[in-house]
Amino acid sequence: MAPQYRQRRVGSALLQALVAALRGKGVDTIRLSVSPENAPARALYRNYGFTVIATEPGYFGEGQDRLIMILRI
């Protein structure tokens, strides 16, 4: 999310719409990846109920890991 849109709940609204659309299509689990350094995104996902299920070291390059998160809907 671009900095000028943070704290306006735009990300929350988009995530809520995505979850509703996927639920309507019969999807029961959402899986995503995020950089551990992306604190705003991690907080958004965690507040929505996503949990970290794995870490992939070096995924984005040397010393740049990624977190795998899931949400059962």
Automatic annotation (TrEMBL):
Q: Which InterPro entries would you find in this protein's record?
A: Acyl_CoA_acyltransferase, GNAT_dom, YpeA/RimI_acetyltransf
Keywords in alphabetical order: Acyltransferase, Transferase
Domain named N-acetyltransferase is located at 1-73
Under the heading SUPFAM superfamilies, the entry gives:
Acyl-CoA N-acyltransferases (Nat) (SSF55729)
User: GO molecular-function annotation terms?
Assistant: acyltransferase activity, transferring groups other than amino-acyl groups
Q: Which Pfam families match?
A: Acetyltransf_1
User: Transferase: is it a keyword of this entry?
Assistant: yes
According to UniProt, the name of this protein is N-acetyltransferase domain-containing protein
Organism name: hydrocarbon metagenome
